[in-house]
Amino acid sequence: MFSKKQTADASNPDQSDLESDGVFFSSDSSQDAEISNDANPYADNQTLNSVRPTKPSIISEGFEFIGNITSEGTLNIAGIVRGKVSAQSILVDVEGYVEGELSSDILVVKGKIVGDVTCRELNIGPRALIEGTISYQHIHVQRGGKITGKFNKV
C-alpha cells in the first residue's frame, strides 16, 4: 500500500519501516500503521483539550431557558433567556430576547435585552433594543440601535 522512500542509507535492505514526521508505516503485507507518541503532540487528552477550540453554546429560536447560564466560551442566544447569563462572549441574535443580568467580556446585541448589562466591549446592532443599566468600557451603537436606561463607563 505504501511505497518505499529512498533514504541516504540505501545499503541497509533490512529496513522495513518508513518514517515520516514521527509516524511509522510498516511495509509488510499486514498494512498496520503505528503512531509514535513522542512525535504526536495530541497523544494525551490534556494537550488535545487545550488545543481544540471551544464550540459556541446556542439557545435556538423557539427555545426558552429560565435560570442561570455560565460559560467560559461563546454563547449565541436566538431564543428566550430569563435569568442570569455569564460568558466570555455573548451574541443576542435578532430574534433573541434576554431578561435578567448579562455579564460578558464581549457582548453583541442584535435582539432585545431587559435588565442589567456588564461588559468590556458592547456592540449594539441596528435592530437592537436594550432597557436597563449598562456598564461598559467600550461601546459601539449602529444606526437604529436603541438604548433606554442608565450608562456607566467603567
Explain this structure.
It is a single chain. With 154 residues, the chain is mainly beta. The chain has one helix spanning 45-51, and strands at 17-20, 23-26, 33-35, 57-59, 64-66, 69-70, 74-77, 80-92, 97-109, 112-124, 129-136, 138-141, 146-153. The strands form 2 sheets. Strands 4, 5, 6, 7, 8, 9, 10, 11, 12 and 13 form a 10-stranded parallel beta sheet that branches. It has a 3-stranded antiparallel beta sheet with strand order 1-2-3, with no helix packed on it. It is globular and about 30 Å long. It starts with 16 loop residues before the first strand and ends with a strand.
Element-level helix/strand string:
EEEHEEEEEEEEEE
Strand content: over 45%
The largest sheet is:
10 strands, parallel
Assembly annotation = single chain
Helix content: under 10%
Q: What structural class do helix, strand and pairing data support?
A: mainly beta
The first-to-last residue Cα distance is: 64 Å
Based on DSSP secondary structure assignment, what is the total number of beta strands? 13
- Helix count equals 1
Helix-strand layout with pairing:
Blueprint: E1 17-20, E2 23-26, E3 33-35, H1 45-51, E4 57-59, E5 64-66, E6 69-70, E7 74-77, E8 80-92, E9 97-109, E10 112-124, E11 129-136, E12 138-141, E13 146-153
Parallel strand pairs: 4-7, 5-8, 6-8, 7-8, 8-9, 9-10, 10-11, 10-12, 11-13
Antiparallel strand pairs: 1-2, 2-3
Descriptive terms for the model:
154 residues; ten-stranded parallel sheet; 1 helix; 5% helix
